[in-house]
Specification:
By secondary structure, the chain is an alpha+beta fold. The protein is built from 2 helices and 4 strands, in the order E-H-E-E-H-E.
Length: 94
């Protein structure tokens, strides 16, 4: 099992209920794949240095996770299907 950091950028112009649904779906994905959430850090609404899709404010979430590297591709596919998740990136920690 390896430790990873996952940075998510969600739309900030959606309702809090829609954001919570996306977060709950992501946590369900983690539970289904035996991913351990070591830390969850909600950074909230932040301004970007440049616009993405004509918006410059986004909602950030940082996760520290422990899971097998083979799950990255399946989790990536699932996160790509969520229209509220704009960007995400996995970084392997030492």
């Amino acid at each position: 099992m390896n430790k990873y950091e996952l940075m998510l950028i969600l739309k900030s112009n959606i309702s809090e209920e829609e954001r919570n649904i996306s977060i709950d779906n992501l946590k369900q994905l983690f539970n289904d794949n035996n991913v351990s959430i070591d830390k969850e850090d909600m950074w909230g609404d932040k301004k970007l240095a440049y616009k993405i899709k004509s918006l410059n404010r986004w909602f950030y979430i940082l996760y520290n996770l422990t899971f097998d590297w083979k799950l990255i591709s399946s989790m990536t596919k699932t996160m790509n299907l969520d229209s509220n998740i704009i960007r995400f990136m996995f970084v392997k920690l030492d």
